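From the shared-data thread, chain only:
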Amino acid sequence: MVATISPSTLADLRRRGEKVTLIDVRTPAEFGEVHVDIARNMPLDRLDAREVGTLAAEGPVYVICKSGTRSRMACEKLVAAGLERIASVEGGTAACVEAGLPVIRGRKVMSLERQVRIAAGALVAFGAATAGLCPDPLWQKVGAGLAAFVGCGLVFAGITDTCGMGMLIARMPWNRASASPGACSRALLFGLVLGAMTGTALAEHTKDSLDTVKRAVAEKKAILVDVREPEEWEQGHVVGARLLPLSALEKGVKAEELARVLPKDKVIYCHCLAGGRCLDAARILGDLGYDVRPLKPGYPQLEKAGFPTAKGR
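Structure, as tokens:
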């Protein structure tokens, strides 16, 4: 049986000045949206019992997630590893917010539970449509099997209170990014879902390697465009890249104004944080006649690949 602690009791401990070690096991994206101010992020899929053990040696460790399910799973994992004085926060972050505990808020992102519902619903809808509309008997069986498999998976998740699909989606790049991942998350997730339902892709990332991109930019044959938002740009950007936020493109930029920033005689490599927003940007720029190639690697990967970076404007 996993020990629990209520948000009100947690708040009392803080008021008394007692040491409170709080671990948030949600994805970095969810943590970035809102978290209790003293919480530290250790995603469930990367939870290290040895690291938590060093914290438990100093006092009780409290584990929190969104509503309590993942924190309970984390506690079970830690207790099985031999750790003591581990407790799950009842009701999770949502309950802490209602209880008035101080929190830090960032950008709105799509919760993991919501991503699971969308992905599962899309797979069931695709399977049912394939089974009912495809004239090929083989594909009819594949569609029916897919819908049945996902349905059984949801039943199993409900009975066991675990979700394999959720754990898989939690490992996706947009859920691992900690800085402003919301827009990339929505763009890439819905692109994958719609692509699965229609059998086509909304856009494709370029197959050009980062070495090819680096060489083309150095030879002035290509331009690197960052489609993130200005506040993300200020936190870090590739030197020489041009800022053109997706939000500005979606509002509409006059062709003559865009031509002053982006010449049409050069390849346009665009990137964002996790590979989602650049697909939308590529579609918009492609419709305007640009040779645009969206990069799957985001800014963190470009930095690791050796692209020079800077902070500020």
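Residues 32 and 179 are 7 Å apart (CA to CA).
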